[in-house]
Amino acid sequence: MNHKRPFPRSGKNSHTNIGRGLYTAFLTTTLTASLCLSASAATVWEKANEIMKDVYKQILGISTIAAIVTAAVALLMMNFSRSGRTVDESRAWLKRIIITWAVLNGLGFIMSYVTPFFSGGQWTAP
After folding, report:
1. pLDDT, tens digit, 9 for 90 and up, residues 40-50
2. Residues 84-100: what's their mean pLDDT?
């Protein structure tokens, strides 16, 4: 019996495998990235700490400006209002502004002065 193949094979593969090419490109990129040496000496946690402190400073700056502006408005309303109710509401808002600003600064105090005592997950006495 003489069996003939339905599709004769030539010596050259006429079909390119796209999946194999994509996998090779992925593998090459991954290995190249993993073999490169890190240019920065900082760890991920040090960089995260730096970013967190920067964001906190930005928030504190914006909140300080907002507290000054709203406190000024509350003081103006308290001084130039003829209604006792408006004066009482202005005084209540002024208290809220001061308390909120103090809490935000207190968080900064904790971040700056208390967290170094817990470096490495253990208490280190000063």
Report:
1. 566 777 787 78
2. 92
**Exposure pattern of 65-75 as b/e (b: 16+ CB <10 Å)?**
eebeebbeebe
Contacts from 54-63 at CB under 8 Å and sequence distance 24+? 56/107, 56/108, 56/111, 59/104, 60/104, 60/105, 60/108, 63/100, 63/101, 63/104
Q: Determine the Cα–Cα distance for residues 99 and 6; give it in Å rounded to an integer.
A: 85
User: Of 119 and 76, which is predicted with more confidence?
Assistant: 76
Q: Which residues of 5-16 are buried (b: 16+ CB within 10 A; e: fewer)?
A: eeeeeeeeeeee
DSSP state of 15: -
- Is the confidence at residue 30, as pLDDT, over 90? no
With beta carbons less than 8 A apart as the criterion, state whether 74 and 94 touch. yes
pLDDT band at 8 (very low <50, low <70, confident <90, very high): low
* Token pair in block for residue 115: 């967290």
